[in-house]
Specification:
Length: 249
């Protein structure tokens, strides 16, 4: 007999891309140990020193064109889950990522929200349009929509700015029966609060899959710790084989 419809929301953070060669933020040796947030990830920093901020993102954008940054087994497993899960329960799988890299879409995920933006896009400070960005910014390029020069900034969400698509995210969280958090330290809001929003519904199971307990670990009903490339493929296989089994820890 087919299980009742189960909608899954998956929140991902920098930990899922770590094994693809991208730095996390708050781990030892992570990005925030090399640069100060106040210098590169706030609107005030950009207003004060746009070249510095552009260079931080230009450097990170260039990595995507190296050819050695590829989705890993965890990204691939989530893309498989999205494809196969509807035939298991009739429910859907949506990924809400805090990551600005393109590794989920490169792995084949389609129901995807980039709540902190995308490094391979630029936003015009003048007309507000978002465009594809395949190179460095801050070098005198024109906005493809309004034609203004040097108005393009990285399409990312800095501290103090509103994350993207919050209404859609809240509606997904309201309707989900399984909330999975992967590779995020739970330091940054509003993403860190999603587990409580989802878990507020008695029918919703919540699970954390991370290298170590996150700041919000106690809010999850279940937790498993290890590397994303080990944990995610085996958890996805469990879901696709057995459906949603609630194992509270
Ligand atoms: C592995 C692994 C492996 C490693 N396998 N796992 C006081 C209280 C509450 C909130 C606030 C407050 N003061 C200010 C706020 C709000 C603020 C906030 O949360 N601040 C906190 C620091 C307290 N938030 C905001 O400002 C947000 N906007 C907002 O709230 O709008 C509302 C509003 C607006 C205006 C006025 C009033 C209200 C915006 C947040 C923007 C975040 N931006 C960044 C940078 C931009 C993108 C970029 O450059 O890439 O987004 S910060 C950075 O942190 C980035 C990430 O998306 C985000 C989350 O990091 P993440 O993904 O969790 O990474 P890490 O490194 O922290 O964790 C990695 C984890 O993986 C670790 O746990 C490892 O163990 C694990 N791991 N290897 C599995 N192989």
């Amino acid at each position: 007999m087919e299980e009742s419809k189960q909608n899954i929301v998956i929140l991902t953070g920098a930990g899922i891309s770590q094994e693809s060669g991208l730095d996390t933020f708050r781990d030892k040796g992570g990005l925030w140990s090399k640069v100060r947030i106040e210098d590169v990830a706030t609107p005030e920093a950009y207003a004060r020193d746009p070249e510095r901020v552009q260079e931080f993102y230009n450097m990170r954008r260039r990595r995507h064109f190296d050819g050695d940054i590829k989705p890993n087994a965890a990204h691939a497993a989530l893309a498989l889950l999205e494809k196969e899960w509807p035939s298991v329960t009739g429910g859907s799988v949506s990924i809400v990522t805090q990551n600005i890299d393109n590794l989920h879409e490169a792995a084949g995920s389609e129901n995807l929200i980039h709540m902190h933006g995308e490094i391979l896009k630029a936003r015009c400070g003048d007309c507000g349009e978002v465009s594809i960005c395949g190179g460095d910014l801050g070098q005198g390029e024109a906005c493809p929509d309004c034609g203004e020069i040097n108005t393009l900034r990285p399409h990312v969400v800095w501290f103090g700015e509103m994350p993207l698509e919050m209404e859609r995210i809240h509606s997904l969280l309201d309707r989900c029966t399984l909330f999975i958090s992967i590779g995020t330290s739970g330091n940054v809001y509003p993403a860190a609060g999603f587990v409580q929003l989802a878990g507020g519904n008695a029918d919703t199971h919540t699970i954390e899959l991370n290298l170590e307990p996150s700041e919000g670990a106690t809010f999850f009903a279940e937790a498993r710790y290890g590397r994303a490339s080990d944990l995610i493929p085996s958890y996805v296989e469990e879901l696709l084989t057995n459906g949603l089994v609630r194992q509270n820890t």
